[in-house]
Amino acid sequence: MNPDITRERENATFDVEKLTHILDGGIEKTKRRREIESLVISDPDFQSEDLNFLSRSERYDAAVKKSAQMILKLREYGISDPEEIYCYKSCVHRGRSEPLDLHLGMFLPTLLNQASPEQMETFFIPAWNLEIIGTYAQTEMGHGTHLRGLETTATYDPATQEFVMNSPTITSIKWWPGGLGKTSNHAIVLAQLHTQGKCHGLQAFIVPLRSMNTHIPLPGVVVGDIGPKFGFDEVDNGYLKLENVRIPRDHMLMKYAKVEADGTYVKPPSAKLTYGTMVFIRSMIVGEAGHALAKSCTIAIRYSSVRHQSEIRPGEPEPQIMDYQTQQYKLFPLLATAYAYKFVGQYMNQVYHRITGDISQGDFSELPELHALSAGLKAFTTWTASAGIEVCRMACGGHGYSRCSALPDIYVNFVPTCTYEGENTVMMLQTARFLIKSYRQASAGHQLSGIVSYLNESERRLQPQSVSSRPTVVNVNDLASLVDVYKLRAARLVKLAAKSIQQELQKRVSQEDAWNNSAIDLVRASDAHCHYVVVKLFAAKLGEMGDTGIHSVLSTLALLYALQGIQQHSGDFLQTGLLSVPQLSQVSQRLKELLAQLRPNAVALVDAFDYRDEMLNSVLGRYDGNVYEHMFEWARRSPLNKTEVHESYHKYLKPLQAKL
Amino acid sequence: MNPDITRERENATFDVEKLTHILDGGIEKTKRRREIESLVISDPDFQSEDLNFLSRSERYDAAVKKSAQMILKLREYGISDPEEIYCYKSCVHRGRSEPLDLHLGMFLPTLLNQASPEQMETFFIPAWNLEIIGTYAQTEMGHGTHLRGLETTATYDPATQEFVMNSPTITSIKWWPGGLGKTSNHAIVLAQLHTQGKCHGLQAFIVPLRSMNTHIPLPGVVVGDIGPKFGFDEVDNGYLKLENVRIPRDHMLMKYAKVEADGTYVKPPSAKLTYGTMVFIRSMIVGEAGHALAKSCTIAIRYSSVRHQSEIRPGEPEPQIMDYQTQQYKLFPLLATAYAYKFVGQYMNQVYHRITGDISQGDFSELPELHALSAGLKAFTTWTASAGIEVCRMACGGHGYSRCSALPDIYVNFVPTCTYEGENTVMMLQTARFLIKSYRQASAGHQLSGIVSYLNESERRLQPQSVSSRPTVVNVNDLASLVDVYKLRAARLVKLAAKSIQQELQKRVSQEDAWNNSAIDLVRASDAHCHYVVVKLFAAKLGEMGDTGIHSVLSTLALLYALQGIQQHSGDFLQTGLLSVPQLSQVSQRLKELLAQLRPNAVALVDAFDYRDEMLNSVLGRYDGNVYEHMFEWARRSPLNKTEVHESYHKYLKPLQAKL
Hints:
Helix content of chain A is about 55%, strand content about 10%.
């Protein structure tokens, strides 16, 4: 054990194990998670060479191998709880996406939700047993977020009772679905349904892609891998071009909408039923943002405690780089953010399950709010976490660029969350739409409920006379007071965005152009709203902490999170008259004090995330802090060192020397 | 040609070709650059498969092959001007780093600068003819930026007149030098010189690493590749462990410092002589930041003009995504930044050459300022450009993640500039040191010269009474007025940082701790200083534009750059009393107008950067805008599609299906 990191642990002021339980959601959950991790890590079937040393084809190969093993073992061990399956899977693939993700996460659930009982009978058991390996093909080359623009067609032919599936244009080629390129033999294809001369919009169809015997693509099916990407080397994201592919009528998923034998289209009872999955995945991503940032902070903070560099005081030994104020200022606010997002993730999960219960009883009332919240928070947290991972990486200096740090991998595997499941800017604007609608209701005197109810309250408090008097009552050392300031900032920026739309309308532009011409303000309002929600939930979480030591260190983190947000957006707080210039100086001063205060607990706070070395897979983030010898050992194993002399020497350099 | 992009070009209001000449530095330079590009692009020896489809070993192999060809052809064509060599090399390797970079860019120049005449005779011709292939080994596992901390030792043994080279610890292993792993047979090794029982600090030694005949590492030399990184797949960044390797006395570079036969150490006449290269490389990086951002903007803006998505007005065709205000707000300020950095790069280049002239005449007076400026600007521009590349990438939606967009490559190849040649935070603090020193001189009544002279002026203007009256005189539509505001912001923040140090000193902490406890403020001050310099140089450049059309569009860009910076840092401008709240609202409003104003010229402005498709190598950034068909074609060529059925199906999936 590196003596520096031992000393850091000795200086901690709280019980690390207890904090781990809080993060896991209880002592029993910690125990079970560790059991599952041990099960995977000690399993010889899941040992493999460092993925960084493999080609893409080898990485895909290794992932398919592990996924196949995983399916067998989950059944062998009888692991069936969705959360436990997720945990097992994350361990097997070390948090990476894998070729069967969409089979397990989209194909099977979509069957469960949208197949008729007869269809369940036909498809579910074969899919469960991986005779049918499926994916979910929605995105096309020309259309991602805008679903109505999808161009793939399914035209019903009553003569044969078949749908004729087509990709009529180059932009209509399905593009990106995971597992589509090489792994799947079926896909649920989203296509525009045409029957009896009319288009009835998007429906889902089960389309066989490859022979069940030979795995060779079926006639009319042009399918393949979309080529190398920024990360996601293990996944065969694919393309699919359909050329007059005929499928039987019962291959359209018919639990809700239906096409009868003669081609008559029967509408579904409600359009809201397919909302759920989307909201669930976005809520999950918020927790993933916390997770990705927590891993990055673990690596950067442990490394900062064992790396010594330069000098603060001449003549003295080189300090740990964590002693530099600039290093603390890079890492500690991100550590606070990681905690914040983990807690918000827990909250979203609870809300989702509560609301799902309501929905199953036919109560959709809270869905719009959850939809708006999950959209905005997904964007807010993924943007911040992505940028934060890179800050952590660069805080490790040169070694952060080595694949052995694991940080490049964390980045390329996480950053796509900014784009998939709803492009972030579009998400922010969806939340803004809900905020503006709520604001207008509040202005019209309606009483709002839920998280936006502050728009009522602030409508009253934000009258000009009260604005000028506010700064004096804010206490920058009091979290409750800061939550209040974040709330008022959000209210103010929602109002500003609404005003911008109003001003545009007065120029006689259309509603739609007024919206587009105010989009910058709308995104800013959503951002402030999400920031308020995060600060509020972090503060609320503190109320649940019984342990004094933990309460104390998490209060410091929460305060740091809130104050750093204010410093970064100081213009907003000044512009809206919520804080004064002297108060901002106080904020800066207090921030520095908080950094120094957190310093002794920094390593313990990342230890509490409880990532085993095998899961983190980072030489810089090792628990024992012995980074240099392991970096050397890792490098020596790398492929270019398999021979002392690379063949290119004989092929090019030696001949060149002879010619000069 | 895609009709959308044709229409964009028709709408441009200025002469693109003339702007290209300005960016190149004159019509003749444009002509010559294009000649060199054509020479490389039409050369069959430089055709290769898409690098994205190769393994790392294959990419290294391809790069060595091209570099060997390049050396031969440069001589064949008689290209010897350094700028032209650089241009040719960039074309051959498409802007990527390559295995001979350090031989050409560091080994040969270091010989030229630091070898004695006798050493030149021994080493230069063999090195010129690549008999000796060299690299420059400075960074160690444990030390990067802090050179005094390097641990490699060179101990003089007068008995044999040799130096004994050692890597005494694991942290002393040389780590990162490009070309060290497999390519080089020699290295200039920076090591602590020990002779006659005393350490004389860092000296440079020529150390043979591999046999000149077999390329096998010599006894005592442990050398290899450091393993895969975030990008830089073509370069064999290496490690080097020296175990009692003996080199003759004349292998220490002895133009300045010397060790005599008996071991007597002779000091160099001036320590400033080795400063130059560092300053030059940092200045170059500023231009590279403009270059990387220009390429990214070219891709994202062209793609935004041909990509249609969603709807602004219901029922109408899907708009080009460049019509969304949020898209404009992402891309146009970055476009302005790319222009700004290109102009700053030109300026730095000129200043460097002027000052180098002075230095060669023994005049070092301007060196400290250039040193400080190049350090800060290197950090300021590389941080912004790195983040900006990712914004461009994500503005391309899902397709920005595909390697065929080229954006992932631009990012991983550029982002290391934030760390190498001086870690950015350390660079900012170096600039801050110069600023604080200058501020103290100004406060003591000294008249400053050069770029920091504003610290004199503002010291007078920033008296409290004038502050409160300032906001009224700022004109947010006048660039000169904005330059002034940036200047005062910088002055204010330098003063704040100085005040912070003062306050710390009053708490009786040491100078060094006071500095560290104020580091956040110091970085902020440097940042503001650099921002001022960039705005000022952009404004100054406008004065050189004779063409009305070009002057007009670049003025819009410069104004956009200045106003967006104010909006992003509005807290600074409000906090220092330089702008009022109503003025900030004006800034926001004006920004939106500028985005709309730039919209018709956006494609033409990236066309003016004049990147040939072969250089950009981006499907999304194609000049003809025909992105989708080429994306499909690219994907079909990718390695996973070489077989219809991947072997993993037979190895794992079919057996799994049989077991379930």
